[in-house]
């Protein structure tokens, strides 16, 4: 199920900076300026959605966190941790020019082999899919929005 989310409403609110010929954006989770590539733009508007609309705590979000798969270091775009903190939601962001393919689904699924989060999502800023996983049944369910952040510890 394709989610009907307008991440681009947040684009005007990104804190952008010019450094020479490079356009930078302030990442509120990493607390630093990063180069504003098309993929980074998607990542940043999704982060603002998670922080402002869904009220996910920034202290439980990791951006471009390292994941080791078969001895190789990879980077997960956005990982959200529940209050315990255990991996809870993984989000793979792509440039709108790249689009969402089976390979993108497989990429986030591979990251989840190491992290075991119950929710996975992929987005290119225009199209977004989010699913709840049920490993015991080898099943999943598409959602109509990102899940609400769990309460409690």
Helix percent reads: 10-25%
Order of helices and strands: EEEHEEEHEEE
Distance between the termini: 30 Å
Major beta sheet, strand line-up: 4-5-6-7-8-9
Average pLDDT figure: 94
Known CATH architecture: Alpha-Beta Complex
Radius of gyration: 15 Å
Estimated share of beta-strand residues: 35-45%
Domains counted in the coordinates: how many? 1
Please mark out the parts with pLDDT under 50 across 5 or more consecutive residues, or reply none. none
For this structure, the CATH topology is tt1808, chain A
In total, the number of strands is 9
Morphology call: globular
Give the helix/strand class. Answer: alpha+beta
What does this structure look like?
With 153 residues, this protein is an alpha+beta fold. The chain has a single domain (7-142), classed as tt1808, chain A, CATH 3.90.1570. It is 20% helix and 37% strand. The protein is built from 2 helices and 9 strands; from the N terminus they run E-E-E-H-E-E-E-H-E-E-E. A 6-stranded mixed beta sheet has the order 4-5-6-7-8-9, sandwiched between helices. The chain has a 3-stranded antiparallel beta sheet with strand order 1-2-3, with helices on one face. Helix 2 (102-115) links the parallel strand 6 (87-93) and strand 7 (119-123). The radius of gyration is 15 Å and the shape is globular. The model has no long low-confidence stretch (mean pLDDT 94).
